[in-house]
Amino acid sequence: MSTAPATDGRVLVAFAGLPGVGKSTLAGRVGAALGAPVLPVDPVERALARYGLVGDVPGMAAYAAVAGLAEVQLGLGLSVVVDAVNPVASARGLWHDLAERTGVPLRMIEVHCGDEAEHRRRVEARLPAEPDPFTPTWEQTLTRRAGYQPIIGPRLVVDTTVDLDPLPAILSYLR
Questions:
Q1: Class for domain 12-174, per CATH?
Q2: Which member of 23, 43, 78, 175 has the lowest number of beta carbons within 10 Å of its beta carbon?
Q3: PANTHER family, alphabetically (predicted)?
Q4: DSSP string spanning 102-118?
Q5: Which conformational region is residue 23 in: left (phi greater than 0), alpha (psi within -120 to 50 degrees), or beta?
């Protein structure tokens, strides 16, 4: 992984964490602060599903599609923020490979919600009136947690239940 800042200031920021922990909110705030595009994986997965591409392979295909879009943006001289669960090493490996290939530093940010009751409340508050296979229930979130592989290597861990705004610490980490 490239750890030194790119001489032009570009950075690849990859968020990771279970649904409902606050990744998308933080990714959006970081993207706005950096003037960087935020590339979420979830809408790509939904688009693939609309065309009948479902299961494990389309999930990785969505990550690969976002990685391709991120590479284009990095090539344009922009920093990029990736918003994804990134539950397994193979998904996170895409960002390591992209950073290495483009000579841009990778900054992983793992987001947690340290209060399980609050995490459950957040997940359940997101559930639509009509069932949506892409909006996970609490039970599905627990299943994903069971399969979530630990992140090995440098990263910033953010607990969104701590009563401090994490944005200053995140931006400091990205420098």
A1: alpha beta
A2: 175
A3: OS07G0160300 PROTEIN
A4: HT--EEEEEEE-S-HHH
A5: alpha
Sign, CA torsion 171/121/113/27: negative
CA distance 106 to 96: 7
Number of alpha carbons in the 13 Å side-chain half-sphere of residue 163: 0
CA angle 28, 34, 35 (to 5 degrees): 85
Residue with tokens 């892409």, as numbered in its chain: 134
Residue at token pair 């957040």? 122
pLDDT in tens, 26-53: 999 999 999 999 999 999 988 888 888 7
Contact 14, 93 (CB under 8 A): no
Alpha-carbon 2 to chain mean position? 18
**Where do the domains of the chain lie?**
12-174
